[in-house]
Design brief:
Oligomer: heterodimer
Order of helices and strands of chain B: HHHH
CATH architecture of chain A: Up-down Bundle
Shape of chain B: rod-shaped
Order of helices and strands of chain A: HHHHHHHH
Low-confidence stretches of chain A: 13-19, 106-119
Strand content of chain A: under 5%
Number of helices of chain A: 8
Mean pLDDT of chain B: 80
Radius of gyration of chain A: 16 Å
Structural class of chain B: mainly alpha
Radius of gyration of chain B: 32 Å
Number of domains of chain A: 1
Largest sheet of chain B: none
CATH superfamily of chain A: PhyR, sigma-like (SL) domain
Shape of chain A: globular
Helix content of chain A: 55-70%
Largest sheet of chain A: none
Chain lengths: ~180, ~110
């Protein structure tokens, strides 16, 4: 197994419907549609636009190298987000040499300020106070509109865990946003 | 009451996250899709080459190890005792065949893997 292969999720037998492998033109269209939302996900959950640039490119390269035949844009997109989530998780693990859950909530607060956006001036501080996994879940649920099952698939956790963790994260985040007057 | 609260929270979060997403997306500095595509092709080719060359590398390592073992045995047993039979034509041919056959077996095993 090569190094990049360990970050690429392995499809279970019968999980994907074989359609067509993505050729160069199809990839160009897919890239055009998905690259920016993926970058936004990586930038807002990591709080580091530079890291988001690197991880986004790497995600696409690994997506292509995996040669997975997916049943369309939606499935391919979910698969790509899964690769990106794995890369992000690995980055956090390497950085702290510990579990992602052990990271302090404000660990990325200083980096978050790197993204200067008027519209989320209130969201950024609240996001910085969340744990990385909570940010990922919230983003996937509310920015990407993914269901619990889809979030579980993207993040590689159980659906029940997603339901519980998302419930807590939603309470926490909504409380902070309400306190800031959103 | 609780359901209403949940709906409110969902609404607050959806609006905030969607707004953050809209603001973040234009900031992405995208490389051309072609470049990403070719980078992936190069990496795939590199991975394929590594896979193909793995059995050959295995044989090389095995042969090197075998030569070292023979050299060690010869050195330990002394030149006189073991070298005489090995230096005969039959001995050399036999040793050569053993090395070649062992290499082929290792190659086939690794290739199958």
């Amino acid at each position: 197994m090569t190094i990049w292969e360990q970050f690429v999720p392995v499809a279970k037998p019968g999980e994907t419907t074989v359609v067509l492998p993505m050729d160069r033109e199809a990839f160009a269209g897919f890239y055009e549609r998905v690259a920016r939302p993926l970058w936004a996900y990586l930038a807002r959950t990591s709080g580091d636009p530079g890291l988001a640039d690197d991880l986004m490119q790497e995600s696409f390269v690994r997506f292509l190298c995996a040669d997975t035949k997916t049943a369309g844009d939606i499935e391919a997109r979910r698969y790509l987000f899964r690769i990106a989530s794995n890369l992000l998780k690995d980055h956090w693990r390497r950085r702290t040499a510990s579990s992602i859950e052990d990271l302090p909530e404000g660990a990325f607060a200083s980096q978050t300020s790197a993204i200067q956006m008027d519209s989320d001036a209130l969201l950024a501080p609240a996001m910085a106070k969340m744990k990385p996994r909570e940010r990922q879940m919230l983003w996937l649920a509310y920015a990407e509109g993914y269901s619990h099952k889809e979030i579980a698939e993207v993040m590689g956790v159980g659906t029940t865990s997603v339901r519980l963790l998302l419930f807590r994260a939603r309470k926490k985040m909504a409380g902070m946003l309400a306190a800031e007057g959103v | 009451m609780s359901l209403m609260r949940k709906d409110e929270e969902n609404q607050i979060l959806r609006e905030a996250m969607q707004s953050a997403k809209s603001a973040a997306m234009p900031q992405a500095r995208l490389e051309p899709a072609e470049l990403v595509w070719w980078r992936a092709q190069l990496r795939k080719r590199q991975a394929a080459l590594e896979k193909v060359s793995a059995p050959v590398r295995g044989v090389q390592e095995f042969t090197a190890a075998l030569v070292l073992c023979v050299a060690a045995v010869v050195a330990i047993s002394g030149w006189g005792g073991l070298l005489k039979p090995l230096l005969s034509t039959a001995g050399l041919v036999g040793l050569g065949m053993v090395v070649v056959l062992a290499g082929v077996v290792v190659y086939l095993t690794l290739e199958r893997e």
